[in-house]
Inverse folding.
């Protein structure tokens, strides 16, 4: 028999200590974390996570994309697990919270259920999804994408970082290419707990964001080619300066987003100029573009405007240009029942909340294709994320973890009743 859900709370001090302990794996002097996917530091945090889950009595399975599944059995092994998933990888100058609190709050949920002797109907599964960030290997959400059937493993293994190292080789190197086929088991539901990474909750003094979906996003890779030539002897009017052209293109990408305010965003976040020598006119430039908007129609319009602007600038500057769309993640709507569970958990716990659409990408965006899914957001200071100074208040993170716990337990009861197996 289950205890009343509203009476169960996580151990906030224990969860916080766990977050701060693992933050040392790849911790930076500025207080952030640099723990890129499939590096030795990722290996180290994975080993830590695996041991912690085993110590909590879980069975741990690694699939052939390196996704880690830590399962606490329920009373009915025939029910698919209710998953709590997020990611332990970070950006190059990442913070201590993005993704990480989602996995570690999941671990705290398991520890709490153990402490309480609480038996769920379905198993509860904590998941560390591989390469959510997409910083080292594009695209983002790669392994939840394979789980959801969006990408196949051959495509994923062939992704290369900027040094030419392949995802598949790096996965093998750190010993996390498991035997289990990615996507071969069903999930009853998937919940992800995350910082908002934007300014809305803080501005409105809301503790909980009830996440109704994720905005659409597309990524591009652009190569601009001109002519390498001598910086001292090539007159200005004879130059084919790829970096000068690319600079105008960067400004044009910004203009496209500004033309679709307030919701559109566009970013050139990575740029490489060759040969990158101070007395050579740059002969070629590689850069990336990230376009986002909650409406797929607007994302498509932004793509068309960006293409047109970049081709016009290339033609005017006598440069060649190749634009490749490397990722398209359409806008997502989460599951109404899971959303309602989060909203109810926030209300019953007395936390102010509001509905919110995620501006950031998350593994939940892909998992929503194969399982009822939603997310729980908490505020972060000044909305700052993908920054070593990223900060969330302990009281908010504890509140969010309690909402996660209660939403998961309510969903467990609902799904078991639906399957005719509840108590
Ligand atoms: C992932 O962090 C993304 O939103 O790009
Ligand atoms: Mn994240
Ligand atoms: Mn991130």
């Amino acid at each position: 028999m289950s205890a009343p859900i509203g009476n169960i709370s996580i151990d906030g001090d224990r969860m916080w200590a766990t977050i701060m302990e693992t933050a040392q794996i790849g911790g930076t002097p500025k207080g952030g974390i640099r723990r890129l996917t499939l590096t030795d530091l990722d290996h180290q945090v994975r080993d830590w996570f695996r041991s912690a889950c085993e110590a909590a009595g879980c069975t741990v399975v690694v699939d052939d994309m390196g996704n880690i599944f830590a399962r606490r059995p329920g009373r009915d092994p025939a029910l698919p697990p209710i998953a709590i998933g997020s990611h332990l990888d970070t950006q190059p100058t990442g913070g201590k919270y993005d993704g990480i609190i989602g996995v570690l709050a999941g671990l705290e949920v398991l520890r709490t259920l153990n402490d309480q002797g609480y038996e769920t109907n379905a198993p509860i599964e904590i998941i560390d999804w591989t390469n959510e960030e997409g910083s080292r290997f594009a695209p983002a959400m790669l392994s939840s994408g394979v789980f959801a059937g969006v990408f196949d493993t051959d495509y994923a293994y062939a992704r290369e970082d900027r040094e030419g190292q392949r995802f598949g080789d790096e996965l093998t190197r750190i010993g996390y290419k498991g035997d289990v086929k990615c996507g071969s088991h069903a999930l009853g539901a998937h919940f992800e707990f995350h910082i908002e990474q934007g300014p809305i909750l803080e501005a409105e003094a809301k503790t909980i964001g009830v996440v109704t979906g994720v905005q659409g996003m597309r990524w591009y890779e652009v190569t601009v080619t001109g002519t390498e030539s001598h910086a001292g002897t090539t007159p200005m009017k004879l130059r084919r300066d790829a970096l000068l052209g690319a600079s105008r293109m960067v400004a044009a990408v910004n203009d496209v987003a500004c033309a679709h305010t307030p919701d559109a965003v566009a970013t050139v976040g990575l740029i490489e100029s060759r040969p990158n020598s101070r007395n050579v006119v740059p002969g070629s430039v590689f850069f990336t573009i990230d376009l986002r908007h909650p409406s797929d129609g607007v994302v498509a319009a932004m793509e068309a405007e960006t293409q047109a602007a970049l081709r016009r600038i290339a033609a005017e500057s006598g440069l060649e240009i190749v634009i490749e769309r490397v990722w398209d993640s359409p806008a997502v709507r989460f599951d109404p029942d899971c959303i309602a569970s989060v909203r109810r958990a926030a209300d019953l716990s007395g936390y102010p909340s509001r509905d919110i659409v995620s501006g950031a990408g998350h593994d939940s965006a892909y998992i929503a294709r194969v399982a009822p899914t939603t997310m729980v957001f908490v505020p972060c200071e000044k909305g700052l994320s993908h920054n070593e100074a990223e900060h969330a208040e302990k009281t908010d993170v504890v509140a969010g973890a309690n909402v996660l716990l209660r939403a998961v337990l309510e969903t467990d009861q609902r799904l078991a009743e639906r399957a005719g197996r509840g108590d």
Remarks:
- The two ends are 7 Å apart (CA to CA).
